[in-house]
Amino acid sequence: MALREGALRAKLLLCSRTLSKFASFSFARSLSELVSSQSVTSKPPEIADDHLIYTQEHSALKEALRKLIDQEINPYVDQWEAEGTFPAHKIFKILGNAGFLGVNKPVEYGGLGLDFSYSVAVAEELGNIRCGGIPMAIGVQSDMATPALARFGSDELKKEFLLTSIMGDKVACLGVSEVGAGSDVSSIKTKAVKKGDEYVINGGKMWTTSGTQADWMCLLANTSDGPPHKNKSLICLPMNLPGVHIARKISKMGMWSSDTAEVFFDDVRVPCKNIIGQEGMGFTYQMLQFQEERLWAVANIVTTMDNIIQETINYTRQRRIFQLPVLHHQAVHFRLAELQTEVELLRSLLYRATAMYIKGNDVTKLASMAKLKAGRLARELSDSCLQYWGGMGYTSDVPVSRFYRDCRLLSIGAGADEVMLGIICKYMDTLPKK
Ligand SMILES: Cc1cc2nc3c(=O)[nH]c(=O)nc-3n(C[C@H](O)[C@H](O)[C@H](O)COP(=O)(O)OP(=O)(O)OC[C@H]3O[C@@H](n4cnc5c(N)ncnc54)[C@H](O)[C@@H]3O)c2cc1C
């Protein structure tokens, strides 16, 4: 048994080395076959000696993704940032072919059938993309618009929307926030009224990531007049239906390469079978979906924070002031050490929450704490690092200024800091009852 396991691992590593030479991105799919055959025939892969939750397979997956990022994405990021959008269909097809858009989704719908820790590994690696907008759009596709569909959707819906999104044939977006409802999700106004075997949808969505390019939306709408937590449903809405209008592409302070849309629905008719799971359960499904979204966002930002610290070290080491490298001033290297310590603390919380989540625990409290801390730390870190770049930090030519703009979103999107504090207080039983 041990021999067989060793052989499999060796094959996997060999595969990974071959990949590093020839950059064959179909590797991730063969990796999943190896991992799943291991779990059937022998013990699950062992956690690597130098890691809390990752096995050698996680590392190999990350290595493969890194090559794809360096070849297919990073060389074009500056151009896409300047253009205010990126070719989502082209990039998602490349990622989908390689298996990176559904690592924890079922194999029968194109996923790799691995656990959520592999999604965290992928999110971490996507943090090496040299902007925040593209990883965010990829995250919407893989871990924000699709978890509820994967868990509760019908076979027919999953074939039409999940499989095609995982393979990168369709671009997905998530329609929760509205002009009048962001933090308070329960107060959304978009209505889906049942008429025969169709829902007729009226209303609108705001801040829709990938909204100008998306083929379908995971839409949260009110399907009855009942109490706000029980009157909502998630619906798969094709974006090419009559009555779906892209009102505008929103101009933003950061995340430039990710298009953000305002969308209106004017008597849009969708078959009732497009509902995800049970009618009236949409709010609950969305809250569950948020857990993966928040852990994904934390995993993604820890890598970027590492990179920004390292780039600041490199810059301040060669930039001299008062006869010394900037880095040699104690205020600078001590501050960077403090920030790196905070990043490591956040990473530990992320791994703890992930380890508990894949064992089936409710990690709402830990995920909310991690998201809160990530948003606050990213703001602090980007501000401190930018300072040490002096005037160069204030130009748009350096990664630190892009990070400064992009990361500001983390304390607002996917639940603002105050929403996270409210959730944590609920779990601490300190939130005053209404
Ligand atoms: C670039 C971008 C991309 C986005 N992508 C998507 C997407 O793809 N899909 C989607 O559905 N949404 C998306 N959003 C929306 C995002 O999730 C919302 O902006 C967010 O939930 C906050 O909602 P709001 O903007 O309406 O702010 P509001 O709800 O108006 O809140 C304003 C502020 O009030 C404060 N606040 C909130 N709750 C409390 C409280 N309990 N106590 C005290 N203060 C509080 C917070 O500081 C908050 O920032 C995106 C937003 C942006 C900017």
TrEMBL record:
Residues 173-268 form the Acyl-CoA oxidase/dehydrogenase middle domain. Keywords: FAD, Fatty acid metabolism, Flavoprotein, Lipid metabolism, Oxidoreductase, Transit peptide. Pathway: Lipid metabolism; mitochondrial fatty acid beta-oxidation. SUPFAM superfamilies: Acyl-CoA dehydrogenase C-terminal domain-like, Acyl-CoA dehydrogenase NM domain-like. Residues 55-163 form the Acyl-CoA dehydrogenase/oxidase N-terminal domain. One of its GO terms (cellular component) is cytoplasm. One of its GO terms (molecular function) is acyl-CoA dehydrogenase activity. It catalyses: oxidized [electron-transfer flavoprotein] + hexadecanoyl-CoA + H(+) = (2E)-hexadecenoyl-CoA + reduced [electron-transfer flavoprotein]; hexanoyl-CoA + oxidized [electron-transfer flavoprotein] + H(+) = (2E)-hexenoyl-CoA + reduced [electron-transfer flavoprotein]; octanoyl-CoA + oxidized [electron-transfer flavoprotein] + H(+) = (2E)-octenoyl-CoA + reduced [electron-transfer flavoprotein]; tetradecanoyl-CoA + oxidized [electron-transfer flavoprotein] + H(+) = (2E)-tetradecenoyl-CoA + reduced [electron-transfer flavoprotein]. Its cofactor is FAD. Signal peptide: none annotated. It comes from the Eukaryota. GO terms for biological process: fatty acid beta-oxidation using acyl-CoA dehydrogenase. Belongs to the acyl-CoA dehydrogenase family. This is Zgc:85777. The lineage of its organism: Eukaryota, Metazoa, Chordata, Craniata, Vertebrata.
